[in-house]
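Figure 3 (text version): structure tokens given as input.
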């Protein structure tokens, strides 16, 4: 079978700067696809090539995710060596208030994974920059809507029957963290813009540099200058904005030719159609983020709430680090799926899913084994309180199964984002997490009196149900149909940008 040089599996679109677009007259013309695999040897040959492609994307994306997540996690580590109350306050703000905002901002920004990824695969680079600016506008408006949550964090936490001391101090810390909210709004569209073009190494370098800066700055303000939570807030806000400004500088200096041509008034066109996909993306991801936020809130209603909240916060902190690895895999498979569907290569898209699942399950088994082996000591670096360490140890089994199960779920969500199924997955998440998982966890924890282990275990059943449904949908998907619909999806959710750009080009030519 003759293979196109631009679309060979072992030579994907990574790093290419193709600036022309598919001829509209060829819209229904099939593009060379991955040939049918007829032997085990051939499977492993293509798997090795796809694995190399995957890790070229996933490796830097994982580093970026871990580094950015570690900003908040490192702050929790420093707070944990102040007092248990301050650890609880920072953890509650980080997991509940900032977690709420993080989920919404990341979710709405993830609309660009579908649009920018498929536009890049279709070689319509000129769309990417305006898409990113539209996302900035929508996310900035959402920040203003979220401000009351930060301002009234204490009464909100008290409404959910949180410990008063924790609620008051967490509310105070939330006020300090308002600048971080607006950094989220800038960061995630930039991130998805770069990911779609496989500019992932630049993101990794900036994020790691920001993390190194954050560790040093936090130590200086919290340990040396004894500034407590104020110092923690200054360090965290500064680090996030430093990362945002460095990424934007990289783009503005011309390292994304064809995709960024400066600010444009076209960003204000068709915001409604663009916002619909952004809202679907936000609902899909927020329902996942809020699920673990609810775990913190419900645990706060147990007896001896301070110990329980501290233990679960430390576990979810560690869980977040592991999840960031799979968010990197999520980003990689989203780019692979959206690029291949945009280029109308359904077999290559399907094969990429198989390879990424093989990788993610292997990593999940490793973490599962690691936590069970270190069950008595893995909480020690995070707290000086022996009672909290014992509670963390008692959660080892349910925590290990969470790590194993969540090695698959984020990858399947990445497939959904790459294919543009955000609204479908949002409905699935609502049913599995909130109509099934949380009620089961609540019944086991309270009426059956099994405490925090019962709560987490019951909620984990919701994750399991969601994973099974996503696997079923992925297996039943007709990827040829998805590839054919990718171009119409860009037009539907992208609005009239193409016509606008053609008009701008025509006017320039006439003026010349």
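Below: residues designed for each position.
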């Amino acid at each position: 079978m003759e293979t196109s040089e631009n679309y060979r599996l072992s030579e994907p679109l990574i790093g290419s700067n193709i600036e022309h677009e598919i001829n509209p007259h060829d819209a229904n013309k099939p593009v060379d696809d991955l040939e049918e695999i007829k032997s085990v040897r051939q499977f492993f040959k293509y798997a090795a090539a796809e694995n190399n492609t995957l890790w070229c994307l996933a490796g830097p994306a994982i580093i970026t995710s871990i580094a950015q997540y570690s900003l908040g996690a490192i702050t929790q580590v420093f707070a944990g060596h102040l007092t248990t109350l301050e650890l609880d306050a920072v953890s509650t703000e980080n997991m509940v208030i900032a977690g709420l905002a993080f989920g919404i901002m990341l979710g709405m920004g993830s609309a660009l994974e579908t649009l920018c990824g498929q536009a890049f695969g279709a070689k319509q680079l000129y769309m990417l920059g305006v898409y990113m600016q539209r996302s900035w506008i929508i996310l900035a408006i959402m920040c203003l809507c979220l401000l009351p949550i930060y301002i009234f964090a204490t009464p909100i936490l008290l409404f959910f029957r949180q410990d008063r001391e924790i609620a008051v101090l967490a509310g105070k810390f939330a006020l300090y963290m308002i600048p971080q909210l607006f950094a989220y709004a800038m960061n995630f569209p930039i991130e998805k813009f770069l990911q779609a073009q496989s500019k992932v190494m630049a993101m990794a370098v900036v994020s790691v540099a920001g993390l190194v800066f954050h560790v040093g700055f936090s130590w200086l303000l919290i340990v040396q200058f004894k500034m407590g939570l104020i110092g923690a807030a200054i360090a965290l806000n500064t680090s996030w904005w430093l990362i945002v400004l460095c990424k934007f500088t990289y783009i503005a200096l011309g390292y994304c030719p064809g995709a960024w041509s400066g600010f444009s008034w076209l960003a204000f066109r068709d915001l409604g159609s663009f916002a619909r996909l952004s809202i679907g993306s936000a609902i899909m991801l927020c329902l996942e983020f809020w699920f673990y936020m609810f775990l913190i809130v419900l645990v706060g209603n147990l007896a001896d709430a301070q110990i329980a909240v501290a233990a679960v916060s430390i576990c979810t902190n560690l869980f977040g680090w592991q999840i960031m690895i799979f968010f990197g895999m999520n980003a990689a498979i989203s780019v692979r799926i959206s690029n291949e569907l945009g280029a109308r290569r359904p077999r290559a898209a399907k094969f990429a899913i198989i390879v990424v699942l093989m990788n993610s399950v292997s990593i999940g088994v490793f973490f599962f084994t690691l936590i069970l082996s270190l069950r008595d000591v893995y909480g020690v670096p995070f707290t000086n309180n022996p009672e909290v360490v014992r509670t963390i140890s008692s959660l080892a089994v349910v925590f290990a199964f969470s790590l194993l199960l969540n090695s698959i779920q984020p990858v399947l969500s990445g497939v959904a984002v790459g294919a543009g199924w955000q609204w479908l997955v949002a409905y699935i998440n609502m049913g599995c997490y909130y109509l099934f998982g949380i009620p089961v966890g609540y019944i086991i924890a309270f009426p059956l009196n099994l405490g925090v282990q019962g709560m987490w275990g019951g909620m984990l059943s919701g994750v399991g149900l969601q994973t099974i449904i996503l696997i079923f949908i992925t297996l039943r998907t007709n990827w040829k149909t998805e590839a054919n619909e990718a171009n119409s999806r860009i037009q539907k959710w992208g609005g009239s940008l193409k016509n606008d750009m053609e008009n701008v080009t025509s006017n320039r030519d006439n003026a010349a």
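Confidence is low (pLDDT under 50) at residues 1-32.
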